[in-house]
Amino acid sequence: MSQIDQQLAKALPNLPKKLGKAARYALDHPDRIAFDSMRTVATACDVASPTMLRLARALDYESYEAFRSEFQQRFVNQGFGNRADALQSGVGSSQDDHFSNDIAQAATRNIAQTMKLLDIAAVEEFARCVQNSNRTFILGSGSMHWMAALMESTGQMAIPGLRTDHSGSATMVETIASIAEQDTALVMAFAPYARETVVAAAYASKRKAKVFALTDKASSPLVEHADHVFFAPTTSPHYYPSVVSTIVMIEILLSATVATSNAIERIKLTENIRNQSGAYL
Q1: What does the buried/exposed string (b/e) look like for 184-195 if buried means 16 or more CB atoms within 10 Å of the residue's CB?
Q2: pLDDT by residue (tens digit) across 179-199?
Q3: Nearest to 69 by CA among 241, 201, 213
Q4: How far is CA 53 from each of CA 16, 25, 84, 197, rounded to the nearest angstrom?
Q5: Among candidates 230, 235, 232, 274, which has minimal Cα distance to 256?
Q6: Contact predicate 152/165, CB 8 Å
Q7: Domain region containing 79
Q8: How many angstroms separate the CA atoms of 82 and 74, rounded?
């Protein structure tokens, strides 16, 4: 039994009738709490929407979203298949609340939480380290490999020395084998965490490079190997963890680096080359 299930079961005997009805629904239908809106859930268990908020606060959660995120995290930990099953079972469950709105709302909350957790001093330190480093490695596996490639491709026009893994068969540690104290690494991983990325973070730290981590929560295995950590929540009704706040953090880090560097001439040069090549319409 999960922690939230234990909380509900323990509180249930002492809850008022309507809160008890909502609590039983939550215990019996954790997928619907995770992926349906508060109004849809309230309708399903025949209580008013404020009752769901009262239930959350009765269990010492600051908001209904904090309560709901406990259920969403359960599905993140259980894997993509369960998330897809829950998503399918919820389609058409409400005429008023389409799942696309839930996805958009979750993305908005993730961005708000990212900004709430943002350490501006760490952003400034990242910018300084990138400017002073010989090389900056951007490392991620799976879907985060493409996020790393995005950061490299959009950052290279302004920032020299950015590189990610294009090796194909080589392991990530082989790619950064020569990383040293004069280098910086940004490592990106979200639950479930790619072992390769965690190993690379540990290696970069051991080699005394400056290590920054972009991850989803404080319990992430990247945290212990990083000098600074940026958090980007991934909660979503989508079957795959959301990357919206990850992209926001990438844009923040690149913008901060360019804003405090002599990047204008490099950007203009890249622009001129593109215009002369005729590659873009």
Answers
A1: bbbbbbbeebbe
A2: 999 999 999 999 889 999 999
A3: 241
A4: 14, 14, 26, 39
A5: 230
A6: no
A7: 3-95
A8: 10
**Helices 80-90/64-78 angle, 10° precision:** 130
The CATH number assigned to the domain holding 121 equals 3.40.50.10490
Same structural domain for residues 124 and 46?
Answer: no
**Length in residues, the chain:** 281
Over residues 45-92, the pLDDT tens digits come to 999 999 999 999 999 999 998 898 888 776 655 554 554 455 555 544
Q: How far, in Å, are 75, 116, 158, 202, 271 from residue 231 at the CA level?
A: 20, 10, 25, 18, 32
Residue with token string 């639950």? 191
In a domain, 52, yes or no: yes
Q: Are residues 30 and 162 in the same domain?
A: no
pLDDT at res. 95 = 44
Same domain, 122 and 194: yes
- Give the bridge partners for 24, in sequence order: none
